[in-house]
Amino acid sequence: MSAPDTRRPTPARSGLPVDEEEMRRWMRRLVALGYQESTARNWVSRIRIACAHGVTDEAEVDAGFPSYTSESRSVMRAAIRMLDEFRRSG
């Protein structure tokens, strides 16, 4: 008898790679701006989740996360917006 499959379901959209160096720089910037390290890690985690679902833009959040609550989707959009602002600031 085989063990039950406990893997998470595969996202409907293909995942995108995460630039780990960029995530480290962004996390350092968030901490420098006054965020607790644990909070900064949560923002980075949201971006990793978005990338795993193939979501890279605020406008894609609703389609990429249809089962998320509106509050959770709002937080996901905020994470993407914050990362975009970081990228624009150079």
Features:
90 residues, mainly alpha, 59% helix
Textual characterization of the structure:
The chain has 90 residues and is mostly helical. The protein has helices at 20-32, 37-52, 61-64, 70-89. The protein has one domain (20-89). The relative contact order is 0.15. Residues 8-12 have low confidence and may be disordered. The protein has 4 helices and no strands.
Q: Using the alpha-carbon principal axes, give the shape.
A: globular
Strand content: under 5%
Total of helices: 4
How does the helix and strand content classify structurally? mainly alpha
At a glance:
The chain has 90 residues and is mainly alpha-helical. Helices cover 59% and strands 0% of the residues. The chain contains four helices and no strands.
Strands, helices and their partners?
Elements (H helix, E strand, L loop, with lengths): L19 H13 L4 H16 L8 H4 L5 H20 L1
Helix pairs in contact: 1-2, 2-4
